[in-house]
Amino acid sequence: MRALKPVIKKSNKQDRERKVLLGLIEHFLKTGKPVGSNTLKECGFKDLSSATIRNYFTNLEGDGYLQQQHTSGGRVPTDKAYRLYAEHCYNNISHTPRESTVFSNLRTCETREITAFLQSATEKLANITQCAAFMSAPRFDQDFIIGSKLVAIDHSRYLCVLITDFGEVLTEILHSSHKLSNLSLNRIEEYCQWRITGIGGKPEHLTKDEEEVALGFHNELMVRYIVNYSNFTIQEIYRTGFSQLLHYPEFQEASFLANSLALFENTHGMRLLLKECRSLDTLKYWIGDDLIAYSTYAQPNCSVVAIPYHVNKQTVGAVGLLGPTRMPYNQLFEILNNFSENISEALTNNLYKYKITMRQPKYDELDNKKQHVPLITPTSHLQIENK
Fold it and tell me: What pLDDT is recorded for position 10?
């Protein structure tokens, strides 16, 4: 019995230290200000003396969970502390019925515009969480171009905007050997639109030279689209909401914002994060130094939380949030969980209703050794003509 007493006392002390640490983190998440012993005592720890709390602070600081910015100031959590807190939140996620969440309208959305739906949902997630959001997605088949727009950039380059049936917007730069007038560009745009949709007829007053340019533009666009559509080697990444980070005082400092911007703009790093989450098929988080391997900066001052989503119970992609290390992990875990459930149900229903198939990147197929749906057969909308 004597031998057990020190073990029990040590266990009780460690339990109290853990509760003090979790309490300090939650208070710091709300206020963003260093937490002192007297402040924490008034926030649910009245059974402990200020001296005892300070002693716990010292122990936790020695273990790497807390740091003191000023000698006379309070303590703030370290990345190590946030990881412990995130693990605590992960093990205690509350599952709110998806019908009663802000994302319930996503679950009931019926649309063929799958790409536009995912982009809109990601935008909504960023607005609600006030974090930058990014999502990986498979390639959805049976999509085709339904419209195009041409905009002059300079005397020889023209921006072409393509709109697909699933709501995807693609851009291509086209070249002309000579400058085109606005009137000529409008007629060429009408020609391309006619060739894509088959609606109407060849534009009136289209000159021979304009038709030659228009045909060249059309053929170039169709070849590029088919090649890009067929050679699907990496998942699409939708990104939005970076301006949301400006709400946080942590990102008012230029260096902190630059670190996070570098990670968010690194699409390769984003894909690796989401691919890891998708492979594990569970919610995952990376805090501070955890992101070094995915960033061009030595020390990212941010956190990423991601969760997979499914189609017919098969993991097909993941969605992530990027924010400061001082983020409300408990709330974000619950929000992401509900978001994933709702878009998973919506995608499953819409792909079945509109008979849409999908496939994963070829590189993923080699990694995972999975079989995916073959390419669609060419449609009448993708016509290339030689004159």
Answer: 57
The dihedral through the CA atoms of 97, 346, 244, 88 has a sign that is positive
Contact 138, 358 (CB under 8 A): yes
DSSP-based three-state secondary structure for 186 = helix
CA gap 247, 171 in Å, rounded: 31
How many CB atoms are located within 10 Å of the residue 371 CB? Answer: 9
The DSSP output letter for 151 is E
Mean pLDDT check: name the lowest of 36-40, 119-123, 158-162, 199-203: 199-203
Rg from Cα positions in the chain: 27
Identity of residue 47: D
> What's the CATH superfamily of 97-139+236-354?
GAF domain (3.30.450.40)
By the 8 A CB rule, do 115 and 168 touch?
yes
DSSP 97: -
Residue ranges of alpha helices (H) inside 203-311 are 208-230, 254-265, 267-280
Inter-residue contact 220 to 174 (CB < 8 Å): yes
What's at 289, amino acid-wise? D
* Residue 41 token pair: 């005592």
249-284: per-residue pLDDT in tens? 988 888 878 888 888 888 999 999 999 999 999 999
Query: Tens digit of pLDDT for each residue in 32-57?
Result: 999 999 999 999 899 999 999 999 99
Distance CA 382, CA 144 (A): 8
Mind listing the pLDDT tens digit for each residue in 209-222? Answer: 999 999 999 999 99
CATH topology for 13-77 is Arc Repressor Mutant, subunit A (1.10.10)
Q: What is the pLDDT of residue 261?
A: 82
**Reduced to 3 states, what is the DSSP secondary structure of residue 259?**
helix
Please tell me the distance from the alpha carbon of residue 336 to that of residue 305, in angstroms, as a whole number.
Answer: 9
Distance, in Å, from the CA atom of 215 to the CA atom of 209, rounded to the nearest integer, reads 10
Q: For the segment 341-374, what is each residue's pLDDT rounded down to a tens digit?
A: 999 999 999 999 999 999 998 765 434 444 343 3
- Tell me the CA distances in angstroms from 276 to 236, 313, 339, one per residue in order: 15, 18, 19
